[in-house]
Every structure is written in structure tokens, then in C-alpha cells.
């Protein structure tokens, strides 16, 4: 399985200038290559190479391999859409391959810039250290918020998917991001408090931007602050989802079980939310959590099934009675038939686990189950 590894670079003060210069030149060259290719209706690597390779070398002072990689960036953009001429940001990523990038042990790497090669220190954690041996192919040099990163592709070995007779049910929600059929809850309180705080700040920044426009100014600093805040919030959500998915997969692996998750595709289109809930629901990153669960399970050899989410919150996991009255309040489930009581999310997770046993797809492939009534 191909995954991406993030490694932070710590360039010295005298190295920042060459890195920024080669990044700007590389993206300017990629934009020029795209312009030439678009005008000539040439969209392949070979065709654009013949049209502008020498011009890239002389005009932008790039080495042979960086000129080839700049053409490759334009070709990659054309592969997505040939009807538009792409223009690349000056701070866009540079794609380095093995001819212009190499590791210098575990503490530094060699990067090709316009003046030649420079050796840049790098730093990473235990997670990256355990996977450095699997690095393969190209890396992308990225500058973000004054910091430099390498995004490296790695080829991770996959464990054989094991068969399972029992499944751990996982109910996804907003108040509790995930709840397992064992009663373990992963609260979303921290995520929600961060969202509310940043929503308030975002509105304040938007008001400031409006005031600057009325005075005839361009609110660039406000826009940059909003972008930084959005990236920071996205990183926080991703971190939380990584931690939750890791714990769930580890529990299923340790107990020799698979796990079942509910099909929540198009849930925002299927359900209407009150106005105060819309911002909260739009920030619900259940798709990301599901993706993290799927790929971590695949690496660990844990089988995964996707089941219908229909009526899991109204159905008793003990006797199967399904009534709206079983859910007297948001958090509490109380069966009107057998008088079983539990937290509503735990009961739903137990229903999901039972449906996982019935579906029982031992291949571990995340199937797309169609919603059906239980």
C-alpha cells in the first residue's frame, strides 16, 4: 500500500534563499511549459519537452532534471483537465526524484537547487523513523507557513486479511466522534470547542475584511490569517481521527475481530438540520475517520465491513424492537418492549456489530452496502 510520509526540514539561514529561489523558478518554468503546451495543444511529456525544454534551461536557469520535472508538473495538471491552462503558485511544491534527491543517513537529505546540491537537516518522530526504510519514488518539497517539509511516498507491506466471526461495531457521531459496541466512547467535545472558537475568530476576521474593503484596501493579511487558521483546524481534526482510528483498529486486532462501520454516504443530503446545527454538521469529518479506519485495518490485516445505518438508533440490540419511542432523549435508549436501557450510541454500535456478523465479508474490502431496513 502506498502512503505519504511527512518529514520536516530544518534549513540553515543561508539555505532558505536557495530553496525559495529554486521553488519560484521551478513553478515559473512549469507555468511556461503549460502555456506552451496549451497553445500547441500538446499535452504529453514528450511533446512539451520537444517544444520548450531548451528554453526552460536557458530562461529559468534550471538543471536538466529539474526542467524535466517542471514539464512533468504541467503534464500532470493536463491529465486532470485539458480545457484550462494551469498557472502554478510561486510557492507550489517541487517534485524531486532519485536523480535530484537523496538521503544522507537518517538526519539529512541532499536537494538539488540552482547553485548545485545542498545538504539540509531534517527532523521527524518515531512514526516516521520506523517507516524510513519503505521510502520509494519521488518526494515533494513544500513550503508552508514559513516551514519546509518533504512529503515522501512509501510502499508499506500489507498483512493478509484474516477471517473473523465476531465484529466490533463502530457508531460515528458528532457529540461522540466514535463509539464502539464495547461501550468505549471517543468524545468530540475537544473538536467542537476548537471549531466554535475558530468560527468566532473567522467571523471577526470577515468583519475586518469588510471594513478594509470599504476603505478601498485589499485585505490580504486577513485572508492569509484565515487560511492559516483553516489549515490548523484541519490538522487538528486529522490528528484526532488518526488517534481514534489507531485505537479502534488495535482493539480489533488484539481481540481477533473485524469491525463494522455504518454507511453514511450522502447523509448530509438525506437529513435536514436546524440552522444552529449546520456549521457543526458541515465540520463533521466522518469520511476522513472512515478512510483512516479502512487503510489502517488493511495494513493490520483486520477485516472491515460496511453495513446500513438505517434505524440503528431506534432498534433494540437485545430484542430487536424498533420504535421511535425507544429513544426518549438524545443520549438515552430505553426499549419499550424488553426495558433494556443503554447509552444510545452504545446501543447503535451493538446493532452495527450484529449486522457486521450477518454480512461478514472476510476479504476485508470496504464494501458499499445499500441502505435496507433491519
Ordered list of secondary-structure elements with their pairings:
Blueprint: E1 2-9, H1 13-40, H2 45-59, H3 64-80, E2 94-96, E3 101-104, E4 108-113, E5 116-123, H4 126-129, E6 135-144, E7 147-155, E8 167-172, E9 176-180, E10 185-187, H5 189-214, H6 220-254, E11 258-262, H7 267-270, H8 275-282, H9 286-300, E12 304-307, E13 332-334, E14 341-343, H10 344-359
Parallel strand pairs: 8-11, 11-12
Antiparallel strand pairs: 1-5, 1-7, 2-6, 3-4, 4-5, 6-7, 8-9, 9-10, 13-14
Helix pairs in contact: 1-2, 1-3, 2-3, 5-6, 6-9
Measured on Cα atoms, how large is the radius of gyration?
A: 26 Å
Largest sheet: 7 strands, antiparallel
The total strand number stands at: 14
Tell me the distance between the termini.
35 Å
Average per-residue pLDDT, rounded, comes to: 85
> Helical stretch count?
10
Runs with pLDDT <50, length 5+? 361-374
Shape descriptor reads: elongated
Query: Helix/strand/pairing class, anyone?
Result: alpha+beta
Strand content bin: 15-25%
In spatial order, strands of the major sheet run 2-6-7-1-5-4-3
